[in-house]
Structures are given as C-alpha cells and as structure tokens.
Specification:
The chain is of the alpha/beta class and about 525 residues long. About 50% of the residues lie in helices and about 15% in strands. The relative contact order is 0.11. The protein binds 5'-O-[(L-methionyl)-sulphamoyl]adenosine (MSP). 5'-O-[(L-methionyl)-sulphamoyl]adenosine binds next to strand 1, helix 1, helix 7 and strand 12.
C-alpha cells in the first residue's frame, strides 16, 4: 500500500485581485504534492477559500451583490487562476460549504461540552481589515501590527477558548518535535513573542459579525474566523460528516504550508484546538517567507506605488505558467523573503528558461534530427562516467532538499543538470563528431547521454514546471504517470524516434517587454 501524504495550503480570503505573491503558497504546495506523487506516495492536496467575516460581507455590499453570488463569482475566478497556474488540487474547500458549516458547529459544541469554551465579555482593539483583535502591547505605534492600519475599541458578549491552558503543552510539543514548526527561527518567535509573555484566552465568537457560522446553541453569536478557518483542514476530509473515509485515511496532515504572517494561528491556536479535541496533531507546519516588492509585502490590499506588473492573469498568458512558477519557486529562499521585480523576472526567463533549459533541449533535438533522423541511438554505456555521477549527485540533492522543503535549492539542482549537459555539448562537440564517420559511435553515445540528461532533468523538473517538462517528456515518448523510479538508472529511454518539439521559451527582448508591460 502506498504511504499517504496530506498537504494543505491556507484557504485564501476571497479576492479577485490575487497577486503572484499571494499565489506563492499554492504553487509551492502544488510542487511538493506533485513531487511526492512521483515519489510513489498517495497524495491529497487541499486548498480553498475562507469566506466568512465582516470584510467579505462589506465587499459584497459594495459590489451591490448578494454575498453568496459575490463569493461564487470570485471562487470561479480563483479556480480559473489555479488552473492557469497548473495547480492541481484534490479538493477545493469553501468555508460556506454545508458540510463544513455543520462540522464546525459540531466542533464548537464539542469544545464547549468539554469545558474548553466559556461565555464572557470581550473588550479589545480590533483591526477590521485583518479581522483580528489585538492587545495594547501588541500594537505597533498604536496601529495593527500586521497591516499598520488603525484599530478600534470594541466590547461585546462573546465565547472564549481556553488558550491560556495550553502554554506548557505547546512548549513541550515544540521541544519534543523539533520539526513540528519550520524553519526553526519561527519557533523562537512563537515562544518569545507569544507563549512566554503568557497566552490569553481567545475570543472565538462575534455578535457584531453576521456573515459567519452561527453557534448552534446560541445563534446570535457567529463563530469567529479562526475556529471556522482552521477547521477546514479536518472538515475538507469529511471529519464529522457521513463520509469521513478521507479523514480516516489522511489525517493528520503531513504538511500545513503557510505564509509567515499566519504562523501564530497555525502553531499555537490550531494545535491547542486539536489537543482539546483529542485529535492527532499535524506533523509539520512550514512558515515560508514573502515575496516582496521594493521592500513591501506584495499584497492585494496595499496600493502599489510602482508600475511593476504582479498580476498573474497578465503574466501567465504572456510568458507561460511555468515562467511564473519558476520565478516564484526559485526566488524565495528557504524560509526567508524573496524580491519581485519585473526586470528580474524577464531576465531569469532569458537566462535560465530560454538559454539553459530551452536551449539544451532545442540544440539536442535539432542535432538528433540532423544526424540521426531523430532516432534515439544506442550508447557505449561505459563512457562519460563523470557526467552520470554528476547527474546522480544532483538528483540526490533534489530529493534531500525537497525533504527539507528547500524548494528553491531543489530547483537549482535540477537546473545544474541542464547546465552540466550544456557544458557536455561544448566539451564533446557533437557537431564536429558528425563530420567524421569514424566517430559515429562516439556521436551516438554523446547524443544518447544528452537525451538521458534531458529525460532525468525533465522528470525531476515536472513537479515544478509541469507544462514545459511534460512537453519534453512526451517528445521523448516517456509516458504518464511519471515516476521517480524511472530515474534509478541513467539509461531509461525506449528505442524509437523523438517527436518534434516547439521552442519552449522564446527569447524575450527585455526592454521591449518592460515598455509593453508598463503600457498595460
Ligand atoms: N484566510 C487566511 C488563511 C486561513 S488558513 C486556515 C489568509 N488568507 S490570505 O488570502 O490572506 O493569504 C493566503 C496565503 O498567501 C498566506 O499563506 C499568506 O502568507 C500568503 N501570501 C500573501 N501575500 C504573500 C506574499 N507577498 N508572498 C508570499 N506569500 C504571501 O491568511
């Protein structure tokens, strides 16, 4: 039986203005999910939308629409965006789904019955855009520490979750499971900024917010965002529904992938809720960095004072989903922030995708057509061991880095294979060998080795850039579903003729593109 692997991205706030920064979490998850599939695991990847709260309600009113209609339109758009970016999920959960709503009510009842939820009065400083309450000490210059906007004082009857009871359990959890929260710097942040100063009980209902899931036994209260939102990881698997086979099969999650802004909710509140419910905890929470634009988080709610184009709906049709995926996956280093600039995006397109990967494939295919009528040749299997060792080492590195979720370095190792193969062309000079009939066997070996490098590189590349890599693999007659098992041996191509292949990444005139994007 295959080993199960359950990975989640956060459920997004509904917005039709998602930037490529917002898309990062989902694209990383897609790459990790695909990687594990090729590695023989039974993968379940879930994403979705977080649809309750005052902000959503107000946005619908502003648009002059009913909330449900407003949301349905955005969700169509979001799903279209994931399709554009080749994101393949197994389930798209919406927190307005009936199954989710019912299960969240049951979760709330259960926590109340067990004595982890009680009724009291909430007084606090509330940030409307972030839908978060803050204490005085958490504010920065009197403003919301997350978005820097004004907060307002609010008081109301509310239910509370006894988060304060979980400090020791959480400290023990981090200590006993050093890989529970990664990168480890985030653990220090949680311990020093939140747990050591003392956890306060958490307000988990609102009476002022009508667009939310009502508490079943006290319906003037709605369940306030985090219990509702976090529970999606369970309810999306059918937890507390008639059909809970996915819950039984996939829970606990292997990875909750999230941005660093929501680490507190996932590594403090979420494990506390699960402990209170007596459920197993996720194995790992990974808080990745942000994509920044000129030092600011690339966010849909901040006005961008630049002409940078960050809209995937423009970038994908113009440059391909793989180009956007490549930039994001390569540019955000393990656990830290990365930068976005249109110029860097275009330059990377040319240097890595066009000159390295694209050029290797087109040179090799064109030589094969010229010298061997596109037939995959036999090779002298003993020659060029250094090339094969290099490819094997980089392959091992890809596995090691992916195991640590260092996606950027993994991708860089895949590209090292392409660089090495390009250097192999320079060194062996197949165009010279082709002129000398005495070198026919050597030419065949060189061409076969190049094709195998491309096969191995493209298979390793598939989780990251599924579109262009599958075109290459298809041209090499490698059939789907791809598997990393096929990479155990250097020689894996079947005899036959390769198919013609279009140019994968046509070279861009960076200056011209910048001008055209500025016009858009
Ligand atoms: N709805 C909550 C999550 C609830 S999960 C139970 C939420 N949604 S969000 O739409 O604001 O953010 C979704 C994801 O996008 C988060 O992981 C967030 O960190 C990520 N990003 C938003 N802007 C980003 C960048 N500029 N760069 C990288 N990731 C970014 O939070």
């Amino acid at each position: 039986m295959k080993e199960k692997f359950y990975i989640t991205s956060p459920i997004y706030y509904p917005s039709s203005k998602l930037t490529i920064g917002n898309c990062y979490t989902t694209i990383v998850c897609d790459a990790v999910a695909r990687f594990n599939k090729l590695n023989g695991k039974d993968v379940f990847y879930m994403t979705g939308t977080d649809e309750h709260g005052q902000k959503v309600f107000e946005a619908a009113q502003k648009a002059g629409k009913g909330v449900k209609q407003h949301l349905d339109e955005i969700i169509i758009d979001t799903k279209y965006l994931w399709k554009m970016l080749d994101v393949e999920y197994d389930k798209f959960i919406r927190t307005t789904d009936e199954e989710h709503v019912k299960a969240v009510q049951k979760i709330f009842n259960e926590l109340y019955k067990k004595g982890f939820i009680y009724k009291s009065t909430y007084k606090g400083l509330y940030c409307m855009p972030c839908e978060a309450f803050w204490t005085e000490s958490q504010l920065i210059d009197g403003k919301c520490p997350d978005c820097g906007r004004d907060v307002v004082e609010q008081e109301e009857e509310a239910y509370f979750f006894k988060l304060s009871e979980f400090s020791d359990k959480l400290l023990k959890l981090y200590k006993d499971n050093p890989k529970f929260l990664l990168p480890t710097s985030r653990v220090n942040e949680m311990v020093n900024n939140f747990i050591k100063p003392g956890l306060e009980d958490l307000c988990v209902t609102r009476t002022s917010v009508k667009w939310g899931i009502p508490v079943e036994f006290d319906p003037k209260h709605t369940i306030y965002v985090w219990i509702d939102a976090l529970s999606n990881y369970l309810t999306g698997l059918g937890y507390l529904s008639e059909d809970d086979k996915n819950f039984k099969k996939y829970w606990p999650a292997d990875i909750h992938m999230i941005g660093k802004d929501i680490v507190r909710f996932h590594s403090i509140i979420w494990p506390a809720i699960l402990m209170a419910l007596d459920l197993p905890l996720p194995k790992q929470i990974f808080g990745h960095g942000w994509l920044m634009l000129g030092g600011d988080k690339l966010s849909k709610s901040k006005k961008l004072a630049t002409i940078e184009c960050t809209d995937p709906r423009i970038l994908v049709p113009r440059y391909s989903s793989d180009a956007v995926r490549y930039y994001l996956l390569r540019e955000i280093p393990f656990g830290s922030d990365g930068n976005y600039s249109t110029e860097a995006f275009l330059n990377k397109f040319n240097s890595d995708l066009c000159n390295n990967f694209g050029n290797l494939v087109s040179r090799t295919f064109s030589m094969l057509r010229k010298y061997m009528n596109s037939q995959i040749p036999e090779a002298d299997f003993d020659e060029d061991q250094d090339l094969k060792e290099y490819v094997n080492d980089e392959k091992q590195k890809v596995f090691r880095y992916m195991n640590e979720l260092d996606v950027s370095k993994a991708l860089s190792s895949v590209f090292n294979i392409f660089s090495r193969a390009n250097a192999y062309i320079e060194k062996t000079e197949p165009f010279r060998l082709a002129k000398d009939s005495a070198q026919a066997n050597r030419l065949a070996t060189v061409m076969r080795n190049l094709l195998e490098c491309i096969r191995i590189g493209a298979t390793l590349l598939y989780p990251f850039l599924p579109n262009s890599s599958s075109k290459v693999l298809d041209a090499l007659n490698v059939e789907k579903p791809y598997s990393f098992e096929d990479l155990d041996k250097f020689y894996g191509l079947k005899k036959g003729q390769v198919k013609p292949l279009e140019i994968l990444f046509p070279r861009l005139d960076v200056q011209k593109e910048l001008e055209e994007l500025a016009k858009l």
